[in-house]
Amino acid sequence: MPSSDRHAELTRSGLNLIQQAISIFDADLRLAVCNRPYQQMFGLPDKLTRTGATFQDTIRYLVDRGEYGPQEDPEAAIRERVDQALTFQPHYLERRRADGRWISVEGAPLSQGGWIAVYTDITHIKRQEALLRARSAELSELVLENAERLSAANRALAATNAALEEAKRILTESEARTRHVTAMVPAHIAHMDREFRYTFSNNQISLVFPGTDPSVIGRRCEDVLGTETFVRLRPHLDRAVSGQSQVFEITHPPSGRRIRIALTPDQNGRGVYVLSTDVTAEVQAREALTHAAKRAVAAQMTSGLAHDFGNLLTIILGLQGRLARASLPPEQAEDVQATLAAARRGVRLLDGISALTGRREHQPQPVELRSMLDDLAAMTRPTLGAGVTLDTHIGDLPARVMLDPGALQDALLNLILNARDAMQGQGRIGIKIRPAGRWLEIIVSDSGPGFSPEALARATEPFFTTKGSQGTGLGLSMVYDQIKLSGGTLRLLNTEGGGAQVIIRLPLRAARPQLVLLVEDDDAIRAHIREMLTTQGHSVIEAGSLGEACGLTDLPGLTLILSDLQLGDGSGADLRGRGLPLVLMTALPPGDPRRSGLDCPVLTKPFDETELAVAMARTDD
């Protein structure tokens, strides 16, 4: 006999030992199980006690036998009892059967669907009540009635308690499942009372608002998220408490993340439900698609003109250059120089369009921020003029961080020149670089008039400019694209004291010095590359052959292998699979088949320090 059949037989045997009649019907009102007293109490045929028998057939059998007394419309009586059963409501009743015996019927719904009914013969209880009434004439009619009602009430109360216990169990299980599900959702789900104090949280708040203490129950929103964030939320919270649903987005100041918040009023008037989701990636993708679409339009508009325009500029520059070398009167010579300046400006505009529509690559390398800022200041001071002061400040940061220096320097140069133009040659520009958690925060501020509302909304769009014919509208758009390409964020705002402020956040990665195993069989090349590595702050262990290198790969502290691909005694590619990142070098051209299939960075000789740093940085990704 299979195990399931044995269990079912054990269940029936156990139920048959219970003196009360028991039946369990499933959600489709088909018999799941019953005991022998159930069949005996109602005189049911065997077919109505087998699993799968319908409740409707059972009721029809009982109505036909007169179980419920005479019925004017038997089919209506059957439908009424089936409809009542389909509601799956707990119930207790006492009724007198056609043979004069009394039974109590106690029904309770089941969490899996369906219900269980327990039938108890209470004829002896009813007879005792009648005997008590007959033999106790001295008792008042009121006492007897109260005793009967109390007895019935006690039986009903016992049934109700059983139903309540089952309901409590179901609710407890449901609440546990709900908490488990909400804890798995990558969003913060919470409830706040009318004083904006948390009464429920799925403990995911720190996932959405980094740096927030996840223990929020009983605390006010302002204390949990900070005053700055709460001030932004307060108008929406007030409207939600008054009954208006709210969906909006804010930028979380400490982390720079974009958060979408949905507020749903509590229908009982006890506060508001909160759903907060980090949509930073979605917003960045949306903005990137918007900018990509605009760049595509720009490319379509300019691709047909750029070639011819470039040729025309080449001719104009050549002719004007020839005139500039000729002996011309001062006035004509001045016109020639003005024409040359205009043509050169056209060349720069073409370069900007090419950079805007072309594909760029992010090339991080170790950068000394102080040295980069000093170079930037030296490059921009001649163009700022005597009336503009440039201040720079660097906070407590690693000596070298991983950045794309060219892209960052171009971005800062654009921002500095924009600030100069906005201040009309008089004022102060500040560049502050500091750590902000996992971000490197760069703040460029000026003492000018600040951004207009339109500029705050559209400044990063290609070809948007507030400079009229003097501007191309490419500067901030290129800055925005460079920062996004680096995995960062950019915010434009006006400071309270006046002036514009641009906040750039880039991933903060310290450039860690490495212990490099340098494998090269040419002594002169090995010495040159060793100097490159030590200049960048790395330590070097040298090997002149593949065999020598294989004996050194297990040295403690070794972090990277930099090897020539073609060694005298083998291939540098054989150093793969030794638990260390590998960068290969070769003089073979990129299309050579001997370079194909290599799953590690490959440098083409000759290369410079920047290319070397970029290749080594790729091993950290």
Automatic annotation (TrEMBL):
Residues found modified as 4-aspartylphosphate: 564
SMART domains: HATPase_c, REC
PROSITE patterns: HIS_KIN (PS50109), RESPONSE_REGULATORY (PS50110)
Catalysed transformations (reactions): ATP + protein L-histidine = ADP + protein N-phospho-L-histidine
SUPFAM superfamilies xref list: ATPase domain of HSP90 chaperone/DNA topoisomerase II/histidine kinase (SSF55874), CheY-like (SSF52172), Homodimeric domain of signal transducing histidine kinase (SSF47384), PYP-like sensor domain (PAS domain) (SSF55785)
Keywords: Coiled coil, Kinase, Phosphoprotein, Transferase
Coiled-coil intervals: 147-177
E.C. code: 2.7.13.3
One GO MF term attached to the UniProt entry: phosphorelay sensor kinase activity
Pfam family, one: HATPase_c
Domain Histidine kinase per the UniProt entry, residue ranges: 304-510
PANTHER family: SENSOR HISTIDINE KINASE, TWO-COMPONENT SENSOR PPRA
Protein name, as recorded: histidine kinase
